[in-house]
Design brief:
With 311 residues, the chain is α/β, with parallel strands linked by helices. It folds into three domains: 29 residues; 138 residues, Rossmann fold, CATH 3.40.50; 109 residues, Rossmann fold (3-Layer(aba) Sandwich). Helices cover 45% and strands 11% of the residues. A four-stranded parallel β-sheet has the order 2-1-3-4, with helices on one face. The protein has a two-stranded parallel sheet with strand order 5-6. Strands 7-8 form a two-stranded parallel ribbon. α2 packs across α5 and α4 packs antiparallel against α5. The longest helix is centred in the first third of the chain and has 30 residues. About 11% of the residues have low confidence.
């Protein structure tokens, strides 16, 4: 009996060591996939859809952090140095990368917004009516919010596809096929936006900050005012009076908040004027596990529809 027990123990140990010997190999296969780093949520979702299971896609900014608040660390630099591909938006959005230099032989850096004509960020003094102002964050290279236009998003996906093929040409057909499927979904989103917005009762809206200019230009909406021209800086009493006059002038029936900013000031104005408060999400922050670009854009479209069709 003791002899059989010894044999059983020996076999068990053999299986344990065999499993251990396979562990590092299996882990190695997982890490053999090229590492792709994206800078924020929409690019992460685009890259995941194109890469499929052929690349490891990670986002530089953690969920809940936006490009304007992010502080680059030595650990982040190490992550980038280990990446084969870095995908950023461009248009001056990723100022935290200005002092980062990566070896072009090791890490390919691509601007997903390459080839998209930028909209200029208008200054208050450029407007004929100081009450009808369009503000935004300060960015070199124009308005960076190109991803909020589904047609521009398609161009970004194409740029990402081409970059992945350059990094991993052996899987070119996979990336091309994945991109075709995802581009079809974005094309359907564009068609839905055109169809829905065409039937809006009114086209003017008031936003929290100037993020939806590309979207507005694409589909014929008109952003007549914003609450914050500079992030974190509430409007002055004079600007607030102008905002209220603009809201009344265009018979705006709902005001928009954004998930990354406090809604307090908008809720106060909405309460005084008996208006609804809805949310638009520019996706500068995001939940990488639960959200999707198309899902958020459909929610934004639904919010626009509810606001513009209110009696």
């Amino acid at each position: 009996m003791k002899r059989f027990a010894n044999i059983f123990c020996a076999l068990a140990l053999l299986f344990v060591f065999a499993g251990c010997s396979k562990g590092p190999e299996q882990a190695s296969k997982a890490t053999d996939k090229p590492l792709v780093i994206t800078t924020f949520f929409p690019l992460y979702d685009f890259a995941k859809n194109v890469a499929g299971d052929r690349m490891r896609v990670e986002n530089l900014l953690p969920a809940g952090a936006g490009p304007h608040e992010f502080t680059f660390t030595p650990k982040d630099r190490q992550r980038l140095e280990n990446a084969r591909l870095l995908i950023k938006n461009g248009f001056g959005l990723e100022t935290f990368l200005e002092d980062v230099t990566l070896s072009p032989d090791k890490t390919l850096v691509v601007e997903a917004g390459k080839g998209i004509a930028p909209l200029e960020l208008k200054k208050k003094e450029d407007h004929r009516d100081e009450h009808e102002h369009v503000g935004g964050h300060h960015h070199e290279g124009g308005d960076p919010h190109v991803w909020l236009d589904p047609v521009n998003a398609m161009k970004q996906v194409e740029n990402i596809r081409d970059a992945m093929i350059a990094v991993d040409p052996a899987n070119k057909t996979v990336y091309e096929a994945n991109a075709v499927r995802y581009l079809d979904q974005l094309r359907a989103l564009d068609e839905e936006c055109r169809r829905e917005i065409e039937g809006f009762a009114r086209k003017e809206f008031v936003a929290y900050h100037s993020a939806f200019s590309y979207f507005s230009n694409r589909y014929g909406l008109k952003q007549v005012a914003v609450f914050e021209e500079v992030p974190g800086k509430e409007p002055s009493p004079r600007s607030m009076a102008g905002l209220i006059n603009t809201i009344k002038k265009y018979n705006v029936r709902a005001l928009f908040t954004e998930p990354q900013f406090s809604p307090r000031i908008i809720q106060t104005v909405a309460s005084d004027l008996k208006l609804s408060v809805l949310e638009l999400d520019p996706m500068e922050t995001g939940d990488f596990e639960k959200g999707s670009y198309i899902g958020v854009m459909k929610k934004n479209l639904a919010a626009f529809k509810e606001a513009q069709n209110k009696p």
